[in-house]
Amino acid sequence: MQMAMIGLGRMGGNMVERLMRKGHQAIVFDRSGDVVAKYQKLGATPARDLSDVVAKLKGPRIVWIMVPAGAPVDETIESLVPTLAKGDVIIDGGNSNFHDTMRRARDLAARGIDFVDSGTSGGIWGLENGYCLMVGGSDRAVKLCEPIFLALAPEGGYAHVGPSGAGHYVKMVHNGIEYGLLQAYAEGYEILHASKDFPGLDLQDIAEIWQHGSVVRSWLNELAVRAFAKDASLAELKGWVADSGEGRWTVQEAIDLDVPAPVITLSLLTRFRSRQPDSFGAKVIAALRNEFGGHAVKQV
Predict the structure, then answer these.
(1) How many CB atoms lie within 10 A of CB 25?
(2) Which of 178, 208, 222, 253 is an active site residue?
(3) Active site residue: 17, 41, 86, 171, which one?
(4) Is 171 a catalytic residue?
(5) To the nearest whole number, what is the mean pLDDT of the chain?
(6) Does the pLDDT at position 84 exceed 90?
(7) Whether 204 contacts 225, CB under 8 Å
(8) What is the number of H-type helices and E-type strands within the chain?
(9) pLDDT at 257 over 80
């Protein structure tokens, strides 16, 4: 099947390679000519710009966008629309806010263009292991694109979860859950690392045995085994943790729905703390404890 991929970063590039391995034909474009050349050597057809992407596709055209959420998605769509025709499909495989996805789907539907959102999980491992795909869109558009989804996903790893926006909604909550899982592992391993009664616990060994028969075994914990094998104390890493938006959106959705989500919320707030070299809030607490109780404080 023929399709186009716009954006050949860590995810988009590997997805193109997996699709081509499965016999699909890919038209590719990226702002980096060197990256386009890389996938051209693997068998993809390069495009000079977005209009060239569309020109090289046969109708009904399928264009997959893999660019950062927000303005880059809107700008890409605006550039594509004048050259697309009724019945063509745009897929957004990034981590867009589902409200934006619903708006884009309405706007494109008025022009006869289908908009499909594919919540995509799998990271850099997806090339070999496949991608978990949570897809939203009309029945017609999703059915048209289904050979692509089936090629990208492992067996059982793809589902049409609802209308446009549903795919990104499910992926948002998926990533909110991920925040909580990561935080739980982080806290557990920090306790083990800090132990005074049992100093020098082998975290790689512990992580490894937890992968065999334990109720906390998981792919994330398997990755912990790999990380500790590289550096048992993680001394080369700074404890600065980013968030890409989905955790915030999940917490906001929980608030809007009156659903208690304390674990996900606290895991998000803990990420904010990781970015502070020194917490002013902690200084306030120390100062107040010193004022009301004469408790010891540490000076800079």
Answers:
(1) 16
(2) 178
(3) 171
(4) yes
(5) 95
(6) yes
(7) yes
(8) 13, 8
(9) yes
